[in-house]
Structure formats: C-alpha cells, structure tokens
C-alpha cells in the first residue's frame, strides 16, 4: 500500500446541504496493490515506482484542482472564468466514494500499465474520521468492484 496526500476542491451537485457549496479537503488516498509474482529482488512493485505513477497522475489532474460532475454546467462555467482555471470533470458526483471508484477503475489501470501489478483497493480519506473505498470484488475472476464508506471515531 502507498499513501498519497493531496488537496482538492469540489462540490456535491444537488446535495441540498452545505456540501453543494464550493469547498475543499486535504485528501489522503491509500492504494492497495497486488501482483501475481515478485521480482528477483522480492518486490511486487517498487514503492518508489508505485508512488511515481499514482502521485504523478494525481499531481497532474487532481491536486490543487476542482473536481466537478459532468452535468454541473454552473460550476464548470464559474470555474472557467478563473484564470488560470483548473478543474477535472468526473462522470458522477465527486464524493469520496466516487473518487475511490474513479481511481480504482479509471486511473490505476492506466497508471500501473506494464508493471504486472494492479490496484485491488483504493481508500479515500476525506477527513481524519471518514473514508470511502472501492475494491475489486473478486480479485481473480472478474473486474466487478464495489464501493463502501465508513466513519470511524478516533
Ligand atoms: Zn466535501
């Protein structure tokens, strides 16, 4: 597992409560990776290589950016007026659940391509107390994934 920290803004389109306002979080994303074999050194994937790949993608697309739902024209319009403008359009609301899902299903296969390793679980912490995660349901037979969220008491 490699942990990556980043800052991003978002709003939950149609939330009806305070989360539909622009705001941001200091996110923590945990990437759980598996491989079928270890190399001669004993690694599934070098931690520094894993970091370079997933952090590289996050730095380029999400860090210090706004995550916006594709149907949220109002937010896209507003953010487009800011110069320089930086936002990332997602096919669903940018909840922690959907961010974990996107990282697991869209980002990781691309970022880990050619390494022989694959992400089987991504956990996105929105606060110190709350995370959501997406995971590959059956790690050998299918690519079905599920999403869950949890709030813990510290
Ligand atoms: Zn939020």
Automatic annotation (TrEMBL):
Signal peptide (from-to): none
Required cofactor(s): Zn(2+)
Family matches, as Gene3D superfamilies: 6-pyruvoyl tetrahydropterin synthase/QueD (3.30.479.10)
Top-rank taxon, per record: Bacteria
Protein's pathway: Purine metabolism; 7-cyano-7-deazaguanine biosynthesis
Keywords assigned by UniProt, alphabetized: Lyase, Metal-binding, Zinc
UniProt-listed SUPFAM superfamilies: Tetrahydrobiopterin biosynthesis enzymes-like
Uppermost EC category: lyase
One annotated GO molecular function: metal ion binding
Enzyme nomenclature, EC number: 4.1.2.50
Catalytic activity of the protein: 7,8-dihydroneopterin 3'-triphosphate + H2O = 6-carboxy-5,6,7,8-tetrahydropterin + triphosphate + acetaldehyde + 2 H(+)
Pfam families recorded: PTPS
Family listed: Belongs to the PTPS family. QueD subfamily.
The protein's name in its UniProt record: 6-carboxy-5,6,7,8-tetrahydropterin synthase
Organism: Rubripirellula amarantea
